[in-house]
Design a protein that fits this description.
The protein has helices at about 15-25, 30-50, 55-60, 110-115, 130-140, 145-155, 155-180, and strands at about 65-70, 75-80, 85-90, 95-105, 125. The protein is α+β, with helices and mostly antiparallel strands. It has two domains: about 25-145, Nonspecific Lipid-transfer Protein, Chain A (2-Layer Sandwich); about 145-180. A five-stranded mixed beta sheet has the order 3-2-1-4-5, covered by helices on one side. Strand 1 and strand 2 (about 75-80) form a beta hairpin. Helix 6 crosses helix 7.
Length: about 190
């Protein structure tokens, strides 16, 4: 029988289709230029969201120049707040991180399951306590208003309909994931 790795959330093995998907996602390695471009786009998105919340930029202004190192599996990103209260990428070779944030779950499927269940993914935070408190405040209080941004492109009514559809689809996926049967836990057999 094939070995099925346990799900880090519940400790039970993942069903074969999810196990295969997890293995496939783990084997894919995008080229360096694609990772670099994705990181740039991520910083642009984060700054867009931060600009919509004046309290967030004020909090980040107080932490200007303090490097934050983010880790998730093979993904590493070094950011620092600017004097404008936004984020910029830092060169890992020249900046010493004052805060290290590591997602403890390496599987994208595990993270998606936790998020769909309404939980936050597990993180390990080390470093500057004040900077960590500011980042925690941002995570708890700043939200991207997707509907507002969409309405600027397609108008209010279509944006409302699209976001409503996406919300219902996410709820359906969440309900499906909750109903998905889990294989029974294997009992330990002792050979004598």
């Amino acid at each position: 029988m094939a070995h099925v790795p346990p799900d880090s959330v519940s400790g039970t093995p993942l069903p074969p289709p999810l196990n295969l998907l997890q293995d496939l996602l783990g084997a894919l390695r995008p080229p360096a230029w694609a990772v670099d471009e994705l990181q740039n786009r991520l910083v642009l998105l984060l700054n867009h969201v931060l600009q919509q919340e004046p309290a967030a930029t004020e909090r980040l202004k107080r932490q200007a120049g303090k490097a934050i190192q983010l880790h998730w599996g093979d993904f590493h990103l070094m950011l620092a707040p600017t004097r404008a209260g936004l984020l910029e990428r830092c060169d890992p070779a020249s900046a010493t991180p004052e805060l290290r944030v590591t997602l403890t779950q390496t599987s994208p499927i595990d993270i998606a399951q936790r998020v769909l269940a309404g939980d936050k993914p597990g993180v390990d935070i080390q470093g500057d306590v004040q900077l960590a408190a500011e980042i925690a405040w941002l995570v708890d209080n700043v939200r991207w208003d997707v509907e507002e941004d969409l309405s600027r492109i397609v108008g209010d009514a279509p944006a409302h309909a699209l976001v409503g559809f996406a919300r219902r689809a996410a709820e359906a996926v969440k309900a499906f994931a909750e109903r998905m049967p889990r294989p029974p836990a294997r009992s330990a057999k002792v050979d004598r």
